[in-house]
Structure formats: structure tokens, C-alpha cells
Amino acid sequence: MSSQILLSGGDKYYSYSGEVFGDVSAPATIPMITIDNTGLRDSYVGVYPFYSTVVSGTAANALGIQIKLDGVVILHSKQYYGGSQAIQQDSELVNLFIPRNSKLEIISMNSSGNNTQIRGCNLIGYYL
User: Fold this and answer.
1) CATH code, 100
2) pLDDT 10s digits, 76-97
3) Using an 8 Å Cβ cutoff, are 2 and 91 in contact?
4) What's the number of domains the chain is made of?
5) Cβ–Cβ under 8 Å, residues 119 and 108
């Protein structure tokens, strides 16, 4: 889990989760990025989730992300697989405005069949 890293110019920041994955205990969520305070200025951020090859492509299994702002869910996106054939999940770019002094959390949502699937998230922020 990564926190906010300010670039040398002071007007941009980033956060990289690295590769994360669950274990066989079936957690429903895995924290990827948590920024406790985004800073004294409003931000425009790009969130770039990524996923490895699907472990289980059955209809009951899914993998996606949830984004929370000050504890409120502002995005919940999960891809369900309609058949038994495992398909590669595409990454989706999410752009958001973030008010100053906000807590930003990016969480991986998964079901039991995809606990061990590698996933991660990159965030790039621009102060306004």
C-alpha cells in the first residue's frame, strides 16, 4: 500500500501500489492506495488500475476497484465474467476531482475465485 509522493516541482504527486494479491482466506477487499490527506490544494487525479491474467472466469467471480473519498464510496466498478472461459480484464482509467485535505482510498474488490490474481493501481495527481 503506497502513500502520496510529491514530485520535485511541488505541483504533482503520485502513488503506486505495486503488485498486490490476496490469499485463500477470501478477503472481499484488499487496500491498494491510501492517502490520508491529499494536501492543501484541490487535485485532479488519474487512477490507473491493472490486473494480471484472470484466475477463474466463472460467472460468480469478479475483480474490480472501489474508490472512497473521506470514507464515502464514489466509484465501485467490478467486472463479472459471463462464461467459463477466462478472459483478460481491461484496465479502466478513472479521472476525479479531489477536494483539498481529503482522505483518498483505492481498494481492490474481489471474489473467492480471484483472490490470488495479481492486481495493482497507479495514481497521478495534479494540484489545481
Assistant:
1) 2.60.120.760
2) 887 655 554 445 555 678 999 9
3) no
4) 1
5) yes
